[in-house]
Write a structure and sequence with these properties.
186 residues, alpha/beta, 29% strand, 10 strands
Length: 186
């Protein structure tokens, strides 16, 4: 069975998006491993994200008019979007809109992933709900040399060192990539 992974970039002060929910601060950050995401995503069989993340990607990439961009990034990987409102679906893509408890969604994602990893894209509150349910196995952070001073928090939860262990550190240009294992036991 695959792992459930939170893979994201963060500012050095712990934000995954700025106060306007934008990721534009991230793109100028230099990195030396251009295949890092492709390598990671090659092991992913299902993914999920919150509504704010979905809307940002939708708007930033103009995906309603250019849906082939989604397939270029994510192929045919099924995606779940947690939302409490109606959102437009990207034409022709396997996107499932859900709300409520993460446990049944995690089970559906696990089945769809067929042994591959699950990627929890963000935001931090959604990832926190998976951690609360003891369904998070790994956190991979690309820590950038950017200080936002506010915005969407990386993970608004208290997870202490009895559950979280550093397992790898590697440089990637201006970023430090930190990998943590997360214990599922209570």
């Amino acid at each position: 069975m695959g792992k459930t992974v939170y893979y994201t970039a963060t500012s050095a002060d712990g934000f995954i998006a700025d106060a306007g929910n934008s990721l534009d601060w991230l793109f100028p950050v230099e990195h030396t491993d251009p295949d890092g995401f492709a390598t990671f995503f090659g092991a992913v069989g299902a993914m999920c994200m919150g509504a704010t993340t979905y809307e940002w990607v939708l708007d930033h990439e103009n995906l309603l008019a250019e849906p082939e961009k989604w397939r270029g990034y994510y192929g045919d990987t099924p995606a779940w979007v947690f939302t409490h409102r109606d959102l437009p679906a990207i034409p022709g893509m396997d996107i499932r809109f859900v709300s409520g408890d993460v446990v049944p969604v995690h089970a559906a994602m696990t089945e769809a992933a067929a042994g591959k990893d699950l990627w929890i894209v963000g935001g931090g509150e959604l990832v926190g709900r998976f951690a609360d349910a003891y369904l998070l196995d790994e956190i991979i952070l690309g820590v950038t040399p950017v200080f936002l001073g506010g915005g969407a928090p990386l993970l608004p939860r208290r997870l202490l060192s009895d559950r979280v262990r550093l397992v790898d550190v590697k440089p990637d240009g201006q970023m430090a990539v930190l990998t943590y294992s997360v214990a599922r036991e209570h």
